[in-house]
Specification:
DNA alkylation repair protein; ARM-type_fold; DNA_alkylation; alpha+beta; Serine Threonine Protein Phosphatase 5, Tetratricopeptide repeat; 20% strand; three-stranded antiparallel sheet; 2 domains; 16 helices; 44% helix
């Protein structure tokens, strides 16, 4: 059974945190701090609740000014990284917004805390409260020598960052986000490139024309920028946006035939659905995007179409065979309903084949 993310904040973690705090503040009350953390409701706290509880408890056990607290936490942070270090960014998010006089202290802290972790959630609260000052800071970060800091300038302003509060203003008009993207679009770091592409993909869901214009102006400049553009258009490609398909030369499909399609006609819940097919042509197949769609039966007897990628590249041969499978295990994110489902095959955004299959209940 997979370990729950919230259990990163374990007894061992709090022990290590307490030791590090005492190393940097000799009068730190370790035993009292541990008792304050592990209150009766601790076990019921989810990940973000645990992070917030730890950061608020830190505040109570560091009886200093905000700047002095941050100075201590910057030293402590050196002993922690990745998700476990998110408590430090959360401390800034909770206590660094109270007075603009602390703005520079908070920005320096988030800059340090994002290294080997991420300040992408905390910075969003500063965008909401001190937009101009924060965006200017993020533009400055975009020129940093450190890829973690450069990534923060992109990741932090994503309009739809998962698990984070949405930046509604930038969903409506992402002009300021594009100013940061322009500074980072030629970044040499894959870590940063992925963030820029994810940012573009976010924007495409609300402002597709702006992303299409960006791609039109930036294609064929470099291999890296081409990758950013394509990855940033993945939602538009998945929804078969014709302009985007044309931009990436996924506009031809009539010369391609699908043959030897074979799929399971009936499967049981918790089994895999297997299918295979061949694509062929009288000429080299060329630039092609191959996808499949599952039309999942819903509780109201309608179907919900979900598209999955198979291949997206140039095929220089005249034929290619694909074999795939799709799990029909129930998950927290998807419940399967017994009855008729459909599978479709898409070539360059066009559905060229659709077949039905039946999902059976294992209890029968």
């Amino acid at each position: 059974m997979a370990t729950l993310l919230k259990n990163i904040y374990s007894q061992e973690f709090i022990k290590n945190l307490s030791n590090s705090l005492q190393k940097n503040y000799k009068d730190f009350k370790k035993d009292e701090f541990k008792k304050a953390i592990f209150i009766n409701s601790w076990e019921s706290f989810e990940l973000k609740q645990r992070i917030r509880h730890i950061s608020k408890t830190l505040k109570a056990f560091l009886p200093f000014s905000y700047k002095e607290q941050i100075d201590i936490l910057i030293e402590v942070k050196q002993d922690f990284k990745a998700l476990e270090a998110m408590i430090f960014q959360d401390f800034v998010e909770v206590f660094g917004l109270e007075d603009f006089v602390d703005f520079e202290v908070s920005m320096k802290a988030l800059e340090v805390f994002t290294i080997d972790s991420s300040s992408e959630f905390a910075i969003r609260q500063f965008i909401l409260k001190y937009e101009d000052e924060t965006i200017n800071q993020m533009k400055f970060w975009a020129k940093s020598q450190n890829e973690h800091i450069r990534r923060l300038s992109s990741e932090g302003c994503r309009p739809r960052l998962p698990w984070a509060i949405a930046l509604v203003k930038y969903k409506e008009n992402p002009k300021k986000v594009f100013e940061i993207i322009e500074l980072l679009k030629n970044d040499s770091s894959k870590y940063v490139q992925k963030s820029v592409a994810n940012n573009l993909n976010d924007i495409s869901k609300d402002n597709p024309k702006m992303v299409i214009n960006f791609v039109r102006n930036n294609l064929k400049i470099s291999k890296e920028l081409d990758w950013i553009c394509k990855h940033g258009c993945r939602t538009l490609l998945k929804t078969a946006n014709k302009e985007v398909l044309d931009l990436f030369n996924f506009d031809k499909y009539h010369h391609i035939n699908i043959t030897n399609f074979c799929c399971d006609k009936s499967i049981f819940l918790n089994e895999d659905f297997n299918f295979s097919f061949e694509i062929n042509s009288d000429e080299p197949i060329g630039n092609i995007r191959v996808e499949y769609a599952i039309y999942y039966l819903k509780s109201n007897n309608n179907h919900n179409k979900k598209v999955f990628m198979i291949s997206q590249n140039e095929i220089k041969l005249n034929k290619k065979i694909f074999q795939k499978k799709q799990s029909f295990k129930n998950m927290t994110t998807r419940k399967h309903y017994i009855g008729t489902h459909f599978i479709g095959v898409l070539i360059n955004g066009v559905e060229v084949l659709k077949e039905e299959f039946f999902l059976n209940d294992t209890s029968n």
